């Protein structure tokens, strides 16, 4: 009960209160950090759906060229957070990276908005015929490309460091009270909710009020987020960069190779390993023992300066450097288990095809757009976070008499298993839908709507929302807990990196299935005619792979051992 009341007292701390005005960090700073990324996601995702129309109608681009342009922008926006994380952890620090990203995003959005206000900034086109009086000039394209480049750079700065910067604000008392776990959950839920608003409200404004207003709203939101982030600057905890993370990891690899012929002692003696000043680590762990040679002192007179530093860091590293590399290598197997979760989630485009061939009416006059079924997954995710954080955790803590929560690895495991059930439900629904379509004689009519409610697709979306809420939040919590604080920005981007790999894996699986099942004159499982294909077989294959991945996760989890500060 004491732990629960302590958590409540932290949550009730007013934002930027005059009381304790000299204190740094704490829960009060988190809304400003979360809002900054939430508004960036809302703005960038709100621009994406209709951007193909803006480029073709206002710039006279061909559909293929405009699509390729947007794909490159999406790829850049997914890659820049990884670059930003490396720069943040190695050189500039998290606050500076977010500040730079916020300004870059704002400038990019303002520049794009100006193209709707200044006629000379783009070609003169007839949006109804998609014909232009003149082709885009070099200046027109430079303005357009610069705006998107700035938004991608800004995304890299904000998304790479926001989650980790929030963790920096939490004291040891906050983490023990459960604030850290709540922060992970609410961070992901709020970002997901902002994405939902961007994909619905902002797109609606663009459709009904024009480009100037539709692009202006994201500018205003990003401006407010940027200003509020800087206003809270005096209250932030700003962790300084101690060393270059990239060179530090490389030094361990080089030093361990150079010292590969050295014999490690069977029993550790004091002073035999190079220790960092004020470090809690006195000796390296026994796992990945060959790396320990990187911090093994051969001759203290030849290897160390009078101050105790390594004369050549490429020949001798500290125990902390060695353990950082070990921690990164150690989490790779568990990180890889999240790839199939991404593959599962990425099947949403096929779900749209199913929904379009089913009865989507809620009432006689209202029909759910087939592309809007993704919103049910986001709503499910947000609802689960609210139920877990506001109901389940307090009730369990009250019964237990101390703060209670599900461990990071348990969340990941439950999320992976729930994902298996979700895709299995989709396979069952598709099998029933296909049989009805064939019975009604729709085998050659893929556009025909069968007499089956599309609401049968909701179990998959609801379960996937739960799987994401547990799996993704659990992964972020795991990476940020297990990796050293000096690598926090990198840790917060590992999930996004896994999603990028998952898209490639999903594309590979889809291509293989299409080529193998569609060979020899046979109808492919993934035929353009959904009634002739066997999407149910494809979903069953994905389900089987997800289950194998779940078993693989159990093995990796057991091999990893207990997490930090946790006995399970």
TrEMBL record:
Gene3D superfamilies per UniProt: MFS general substrate transporter like domains
UniProt xrefs under InterPro entries: MFS_trans_sf, POT_fam
Keyword annotations of the record: Membrane, Transmembrane, Transmembrane helix
Membrane-topology descriptor: Multi-pass membrane protein
GO cellular component, one term: membrane
Pfam families: PTR2 (PF00854)
The keyword Membrane is annotated on this UniProt entry: yes
An example molecular function term from Gene Ontology annotations: transmembrane transporter activity
Compartments (UniProt record): Membrane
Coiled coil spans: none
Membrane spanning stretches: 69-87, 99-119, 139-165, 186-205, 211-237, 331-353, 373-391, 412-429, 537-556
Principal location class: membrane
Sequence similarity: Belongs to the major facilitator superfamily. Proton-dependent oligopeptide transporter (POT/PTR) (TC 2.A.17) family.
Protein name: Protein NRT1/ PTR FAMILY 1.2 isoform A
């Amino acid at each position: 009960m004491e732990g629960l009341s302590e958590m409540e007292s932290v949550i009730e701390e007013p934002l930027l209160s005059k009381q304790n005005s000299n204190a740094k960090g704490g829960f009060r700073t988190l809304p400003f950090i979360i809002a900054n990324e939430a508004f960036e996601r809302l703005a960038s995702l709100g621009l994406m759906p209709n951007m193909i129309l803006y480029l073709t109608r206002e710039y006279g681009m061909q559909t293929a060229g405009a699509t390729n342009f947007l794909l490159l922008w999406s790829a850049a926006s997914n890659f820049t957070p990884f670059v930003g994380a490396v720069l943040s952890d190695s050189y500039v620090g998290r606050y500076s990276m977010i500040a730079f990203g916020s300004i870059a995003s704002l400038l990019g959005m303002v520049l794009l908005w100006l193209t709707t206000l200044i006629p000379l900034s783009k070609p003169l086109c007839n949006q109804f015929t998609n014909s232009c009086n003149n082709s885009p000039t070099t200046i027109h394209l430079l303005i357009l490309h610069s705006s998107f480049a700035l938004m991608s750079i800004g995304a890299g700065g904000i998304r790479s460091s926001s989650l980790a910067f929030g963790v920096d604000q939490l004291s040891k008392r906050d983490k023990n009270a459960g604030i850290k776990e709540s922060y992970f959950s609410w961070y992901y839920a709020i970002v997901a909710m902002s994405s939902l608003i961007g994909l619905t409200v902002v797109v609606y404004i663009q459709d009904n009020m024009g480009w100037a207003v539709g692009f202006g709203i994201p500018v205003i939101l990003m401006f407010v987020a940027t200003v509020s982030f800087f206003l809270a600057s005096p209250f932030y905890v700003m962790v300084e960069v101690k060393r270059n993370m990239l060179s530090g990891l490389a030094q361990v690899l080089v030093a361990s190779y150079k010292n590969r012929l050295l014999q490690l002692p069977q029993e550790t003696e004091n002073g035999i390993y190079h220790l960092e000043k004020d470090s809690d680590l006195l000796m390296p762990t026994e796992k990945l023992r060959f790396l320990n040679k990187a911090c093994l002192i051969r001759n203290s007179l030849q290897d160390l300066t009078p101050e105790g530093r390594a004369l050549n860091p490429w020949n001798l590293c500290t125990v902390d450097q060695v353990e950082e590399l070990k921690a990164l290598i150690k989490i790779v197997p568990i990180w890889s288990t999240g790839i199939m979760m991404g593959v599962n989630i990425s099947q949403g485009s096929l779900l749209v095809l199913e929904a379009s061939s089913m009865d989507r009416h809620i009432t006689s006059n209202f029909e759910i757009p087939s592309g809007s079924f993704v919103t049910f997954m986001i709503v499910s995710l947000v609802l689960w976070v609210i139920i877990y954080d506001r109901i389940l955790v307090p009730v369990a803590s009250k019964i237990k008499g101390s703060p209670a929560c599900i461990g990071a690895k348990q969340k990941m495991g439950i999320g992976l298993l729930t994902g298996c059930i979700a895709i299995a439900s989709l396979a069952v629904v598709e099998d029933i839908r296909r049989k009805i379509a064939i019975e009604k004689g729709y085998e050659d009519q893929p556009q025909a709507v069968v007499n089956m409610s599309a609401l049968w697709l909701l179990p998959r979306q609801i379960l996937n929302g739960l799987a994401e809420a547990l799996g993704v939040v659990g992964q972020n919590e795991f990476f940020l807990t297990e990796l050293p604080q000096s690598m926090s920005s990198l840790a917060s981007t590992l999930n996004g990196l896994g999603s990028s790999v998952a898209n490639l894996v999903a594309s590979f699986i889809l291509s293989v299935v299409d080529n193998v099942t569609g060979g020899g004159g046979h109808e492919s499982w993934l035929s353009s005619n959904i009634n002739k294909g066997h999407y149910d077989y494809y979903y069953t294959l994905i389900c089987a792979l997800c289950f194998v991945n779940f078993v693989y996760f159990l093995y990796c989890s057991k091999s990893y051992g207990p997490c930090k500060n946790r006995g399970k």
